[in-house]
Amino acid sequence: MNVTVDVVGEGTETHSLADDATYDDLIRAAGYHPQEASVVVDGSPVPGDRVVDADEVQLLRLITGGSG
After folding, report:
1. What is the rounded radius of gyration, in angstroms, for the C-alpha atoms of the chain?
2. Which residues neighbour 15 within 8 Å (Cβ) at sequence distance 6 or greater?
3. What is the Cα 1 distance to its own chain's centre?
4. Phi, psi of 23 (to 5 degrees)
5. Phi and psi angles of residue 2, each rounded to the nearest 5 degrees, phi first
6. Are residues 27 and 39 in contact, defined by beta-carbon separation less than 8 angstroms?
7. CA-to-CA distance for 33 and 53, rounded, in angstroms?
8. Which residue, among 18, 2, 9, has the nearest Cα to 59 in the 3D structure?
9. Which of 23, 29, 41, 50 is the most buried (most CB within 10 A)?
10. What does each C-alpha distance from 38 to 25, 34, 60, 67, 68 come to in angstroms?
11. Are strands 11-16 and 37-41 parallel, antiparallel or unpaired?
């Protein structure tokens, strides 16, 4: 399955996932750890262990940057 991911503030990308992939798998495919990002579908956050059931999602990074 192909999922279009709008990484809020960073751009849009498409990821190809297995049919049984979870939203945590999608977060990892986008290059983030599930503890630093959440997926939003139709305006509501979804649990990471839920099987991906949307073609388009938003990925909201919860942790960005660091001390500089």
Report:
1. 11
2. 2, 3, 5, 26, 29, 30
3. 14
4. -65, -30
5. -105, 135
6. yes
7. 20
8. 9
9. 23
10. 11, 7, 5, 22, 25
11. unpaired
Beta bridge partners of 5: 13, 57
Distance CA 5, CA 63 (A): 18
Please list the residues that pair with 61 across neighbouring strands: 37
Take residue 31 and report the two structure tokens written for it: 């290059």
CB 59 within 8 A of CB 32: yes
- Its pTM stands at 0.89
2-7 and 56-61 beta bridge pairing: parallel
Residue range 7-63, pLDDT digits in tens? 999 999 999 999 999 999 999 999 999 999 999 999 999 999 999 999 999 999 987
**SS3 for 25?**
helix
